[in-house]
Write a structure and sequence with these properties.
It is built from eight helices and twelve strands. It is α/β, with parallel strands linked by helices and 223 residues long.
């Protein structure tokens, strides 16, 4: 992970940064709130470690400004102030966790890594499945009931869009914009032609069709 430590105590900052680097993380350091805010806003970090009492701009103010501008990078607040009111104030300012000084480095590391896991995006799906229809997005292959379906590139994109919105009505205009990447008359029959071809490949020889026309609205994929 890439971590920003905003801490004015040089010894404490060096101690934390050294431990994080030894654990395999990349670490930047800001010595005051103003520099910390600048770096946190300008660079992509996975986690911020923010001392509460900072020169220039205190730690809570740094987090409040970041949250007000839409920055959601998880922030762990470090502080010698450990009362319930202090912790609540820190969390309400936008902090995601609060650790009082002095602390054990092992606990800080565990909390930082937990925040990083919480913020990590879910891995993108590489396979879509609706009923017995399956699409492999990496291999660019389609099967239904285990049988391969030969799709042209445009048909693959069309089926992928329908499967990503399985159970929902997808309009012709939406398909033109998402699959063809441009706008033109939604009354054109290009969508109907491609849907008809896709139906022949996906639904032919199967008792239950998956591609349905919703009259006056568009199409829906699902059992």
């Amino acid at each position: 992970m890439r971590i920003l430590v905003i801490e004015d105590d040089a010894g404490a900052a060096a101690y934390v940064a050294k431990g994080l680097r030894e654990a395999g993380h990349a670490v930047d350091h800001a010595a005051d709130g103003t520099q910390g805010l600048f770096l946190a806003a300008a660079e992509p970090y996975d986690v911020l470690i923010v001392d509460r009492m900072l020169p220039g701009r205190d730690g809570l103010a740094v987090i409040e400004v970041l949250r007000a501008t839409g920055n959601r990078t998880p922030a762990l607040i470090l502080s010698a102030l450990g009362s319930v009111d202090d912790r609540v104030r820190g969390l309400r300012a936008g902090g995601d966790d609060y650790l009082t000084k002095p602390f054990a480095f092992a606990e800080l590391l565990a909390r930082v890594e937990a925040l990083g896991r919480r913020a990590a995006p879910e891995p993108a799906a590489t396979r879509l499945k609706v009923a017995d229809l399956e699409l492999d997005l990496l291999a660019r292959t389609a099967t239904r009931g285990g049988r391969p379906i030969a799709l042209l590139p445009r048909e693959f994109r069309l089926l992928e869009h329908l499967m990503r919105h399985a159970g929902q009505v997808v309009t012709r205009t939406m398909l033109l914009e998402k699959v063809w990447d441009y706008h033109f008359d939604p009354q054109t029959n290009v969508i109907d032609v491609h849907i008809a071809r896709l139906r022949q490949k996906v639904d032919r020889d199967f008792p239950s069709p998956l591609i349905h026309t919703v009259r006056g609205a568009g199409y829906r994929l699902g059992p």
